[in-house]
Amino acid sequence: MSDAERPMPPLDADERATLAGWLDFYRATLAQKCADLSEEGLRETPAAPSPITLLGLLQHLAEVERNWFRRVLAQEDVPSFFPPPAGGGGADQGREGGWEVAEDATYEQALARWEAEVAAARENCAARALDDTSPFMGGARVTLRWIYTHMIGEYARHCGHADLIRERIDGRTGV
Predict the structure, then answer these.
(1) What is the distance between the alpha carbons of residues 162 and 146, in angstroms, rounded to a whole number?
(2) Kind of pairing, strands 133-135 and 141-143?
(3) Within a 10 A sphere around the Cβ of 79, how many other Cβ atoms?
(4) For residues 32 and 121, what is the distance between their CA atoms, to the nearest angstrom?
(5) For the residues 138-167, what does the mean pLDDT come to?
């Protein structure tokens, strides 16, 4: 995906279109950072001591999409893609998983999973107003507006990671 193909967030739109636009912008940025690399490149950990890989980022963000837009927003009872490892990992591992890349994991599988979760997120958001709330931890409630804002921050942070990783792999910057 070239810079021209990445959706520019609207410059003069309502709040919902602006929030959705920025989230889609960062989603497209992540996809661009992963594009045109070999399976080996997507597994590289060039920013030692960090173990983060582009493939791990893609897996992680599929899980994050699943958590916020399906489990929290839509209250769907869907399992984690990456359950806690046997003997540990804690209850949060599923919501925050994906960082570790299984030997048999492929970019094609990870991309398809992530794209499916993005599609489900868009569908779940379309049926709700920004002020609609869903139950959250400890009896609190969270609005769709808050989830959008949180996800924009999540993607922005991880796109920064992806930018550094990609530059270390093959020198590609920008986008």
Answers:
(1) 24
(2) antiparallel
(3) 9
(4) 20
(5) 96
* DSSP letter for each residue of 27-87: HHHHHHHHTT--HHHHH---STT----HHHHHHHHHHHHIIIIIIISS------SSPPPTT
**pTM of the complete model:** 0.90
Q: What tokens appear for 57 in the block?
A: 């980022």
β-pair partners for 57: none
Tell me how many helices (H) and strands (E) the chain has: 6, 2
Predicted pLDDT of residue 157: 96
What residue ranges do the domains of the chain occupy? 15-170
| Spatial separation of the C-alpha atoms in residues 6 and 28, rounded to whole Å | 6
CATH 1.20.120.450 assigned to 15-170: yes
Give the phi and the psi of residue 62 in degrees, each rounded to 5.
-65, -40
Answer whether residue 123 shows pLDDT above 60: yes
